[in-house]
Specification:
Blueprint: E1 3-13, E2 19-29, E3 33-37, H1 44-51, E4 59-64, E5 67-68, H2 73-78, E6 80-83, H3 95-105, H4 112-121, H5 137-149, E7 155-159, H6 167-182, E8 186-190, H7 194-200, E9 203-208, E10 211-217, H8 218-225, E11 227-234, H9 243-246, E12 251-252, E13 258-264, H10 269-281, E14 286-293, H11 296-307
Parallel strand pairs: 3-8, 3-9, 6-7, 7-8
Antiparallel strand pairs: 1-2, 1-4, 4-5, 9-10, 11-13, 11-14, 12-13
Length: 308
């Protein structure tokens, strides 16, 4: 898949000698959904703002579809739509006027049909003549998204787009994101809702303390780093783990009613069969068996903890 954004050796240091970004190298593919995860203060917003040309890099380069964000700023920025965290809107303008004005800022000719399509996709059409100041917080968030899409960008940045909004907007947002991707738009999002990244993203990037910890295909990340857990609900209470099962690292619950085996996702199923055979030979009887796998949130927390 072609690369649309290239970040090379990017660092950002503020006047207080605080280094917000440290030697970031990253490539974003065209028409993918890329989720950038990290704790508060990790550098997510700084990285997005630098790629969008809002923050000047201290070192390194960023190219958007071949256009340098410093030397060819206008061409690079015209390809990008940005939905920021903050609800900054033109309070006294109507929805239609502010979205249309955003299109004009990028030198795009008037296209009422496109503005209508965007507003309808975000359930804003009935509010098109309302002043921004009269809208709810969720509706204002929709207007920000509409403004970002007004000039038909090839790349859309969503910085915590669903933070503090209702479930209806969240559903509308992700339906819109899927449609945009299907039409070739590249989506980069940061989110605290890790389950959304798990559902939506093609690739996951984790940033912590200004450094990229990893970038991985979502499914491959789950396969490589996810853990599975096998839990045996016992028919009879045990006082200790039988010696033949202790070799597997099985853990016994405090009440003696459950044995748990934790293993890496790549482990072969044959090992589970072997474990169950040993359990049977040891006279361990169970009335139920359950398997679970680590979520993306579990993986994220472990990665961030390792980086501290």
């Amino acid at each position: 898949m072609p690369i649309i954004i290239t970040v090379s050796n990017l660092s950002k240091t503020y006047g207080s000698d605080f280094r917000a970004l440290r030697n970031i190298n990253l490539e974003i593919r065209r028409a993918e959904i890329f989720a950038l995860l990290g704790p508060n203060g990790a550098g997510k917003t700084t990285l997005i703002s630098t790629i969008c040309g809002i923050v000047n890099p201290s070192e390194g380069k960023v190219a958007v579809d071949g256009h340098d964000i410093v030397t060819d700023y206008r061409a690079a920025r015209a390809l990008i739509g940005l939905v920021p965290q903050e609800l900054t809107t033109d309070a006294f303008e109507t929805v239609w006027a502010t979205v249309s004005f955003s299109r004009g800022l990028f030198g795009r000719p008037k296209n009422p049909a496109h503005i209508e399509k965007v507003l309808k996709s975000l359930s804003l059409w009935s509010k098109k003549d309302n002043k921004i100041m009269t809208l709810s917080g969720g509706m204002k968030r929709r207007v920000l998204i509409a403004k970002a899409l007004a000039h038909e960008p090839d790349i859309l940045f969503l910085d915590e787009p669903t933070a503090g909004v209702d479930g209806e907007l969240r559903r509308d947002m992700w339906n819109l994101v899927r449609d945009l991707k299907a039409n070739g738009v590249t989506i980069i999002l940061t989110t605290h809702y890790i389950e959304e990244a798990e559902e939506m993203a093609d690739r996951i990037g984790v940033i912590n303390r200004g450094e990229i910890v990893l970038v991985e295909e979502k499914q491959e990340l789950m396969r490589k780093l996810g853990q599975k857990k096998l839990a045996l609900q016992l028919e009879h209470t045990l006082d200790a783990v039988p010696a033949s099962l202790a070799a597997y690292g099985m853990a016994l619950s405090a009440d003696g009613n459950e044995l748990t085996y934790t293993y890496g996702a790549p482990d072969e199923p044959g090992r589970i069969i072997e474990l169950l055979r040993h359990a049977d030979e040891a006279g361990v009887r169970f009335k139920d068996l359950q398997t679970t796998q680590s979520s993306l949130e579990d993986i994220f927390v472990s990665l961030v903890r390792e980086k501290k």
